[in-house]
Fold this protein.
Amino acid sequence: MNNIAILLVEGRPEERMLIRKYLSPPPPVHFDLREAETLKEGLSLLARDHFDVILLDLELPDSSGLDTARRVITKFRETPVIVLSNPEDEALAQQAVSYGTEDYIEKNFLSSALLLKSIRYAMERKKIIQEKYDVLSDLILALEKIDSLESLLPICIGCKKIYHEDNRWVDLEEYVRQSSNIKTTRATCPDCQRSIGKNFYVTR
């Protein structure tokens, strides 16, 4: 991604000017930087526009400490957050990462290279976390559908056959074939293959 939209939430004008300078890298990277002096202003911008990354100072005129990070993360979970911390606030910044922000940078170590590296890392980390969350959500949905299916279809607890609407007990393959246009194929899973192999050698 060569065009990155960034929201900087920082109360100190001199800090904003410095970060603005650091976020002026040579092509092909381009940062579309927006600035907010207070958390209220930052939340308002986030509600209106899309941002790829949030650079967040925890000590703002209208909010301080972990509550600053909490209020941003709670409302805008999809956007990665990088905490900008003072040296004396490093422990607080680490707590913010544990709470859900992607990274933190001490202001006295700021540089163009470090900012770019942290921004790319934060975006990639958020992407991976979101993908895992999506997979988990799909799995939960699939399990819910299976539970729903089991509650609707009478299934024998012994042989696992399904009671068909024409008053017959049929195996799953036959039920699927009769109830849909899905074609099934026969195969042997690895566990059954091992079981068949063991039984073969035992009976010989």
Notes: The first strand starts at residue 3 and ends at 9. The chain has a mean pLDDT of 82. Residues 112-152 form the longest helix (41 residues).
